[in-house]
Write a structure and sequence with these properties.
By secondary structure, the protein is mainly α. It contains nine helices and no strands.
């Protein structure tokens, strides 16, 4: 995405989401702060960034949660830190976006740490962590439910 052509108010909305993802945010509040209708904000944001403001906020929260789960915080503390309403909602969103429950994600990290430093899990994690969040989301975008297109098998 070419940020030089993005409206300044869209960048401000995205920056606010990046800064305040741990607080209760919704599209209406973001639109009020930008002095535009919520529908217009959603359409322009999706055009500029490839996802709705709510999807971006959710992805940002889950992105931060994956980092917090590497530490020793319990699930409820991670849930509160990233601004999710309840642990149930957090687990559902985390599973939708990563394909793993938070507990499975944490145990897979423990498995990577127990294995060699050069293992495939460590290399993949290091490659994605080194990218800016917006690029990592496009490279490692989580697949929600049945959104992924089925790969066609080569004809033989």
């Amino acid at each position: 995405m070419d940020t030089s052509r993005t409206h300044p108010w869209l960048r401000r909305v995205r920056d606010r989401i990046d800064r305040e993802y741990g607080k209760p945010l919704d599209v209406e509040a973001l639109a009020r702060a930008a002095h535009i209708p919520a529908g217009h904000l959603s359409r322009q944001f999706r055009t500029a960034y490839g996802m709705s403001p709510y999807a971006y906020l959710t992805a940002r929260r889950i992105d931060r949660a994956t980092l917090l789960l590497r530490g020793d915080l319990d699930l409820e503390a991670v849930c509160r830190a990233v601004g999710c309403a309840t642990p149930g909602v957090f687990v559902t969103r985390f599973t939708e976006l990563t394909g793993l429950t938070p507990e499975s994600f944490r145990s897979s990290l423990a498995g990577d740490l127990a294995g060699s430093v050069d293992g495939p899990g460590a290399a993949a994690a290091a490659g994605i962590e080194a990218m800016p969040v917006c690029l990592a989301q496009r490279v490692a975008r989580a697949v929600r439910n049945q959104e992924a297109q089925a790969r066609q098998r080569p004809l033989t």
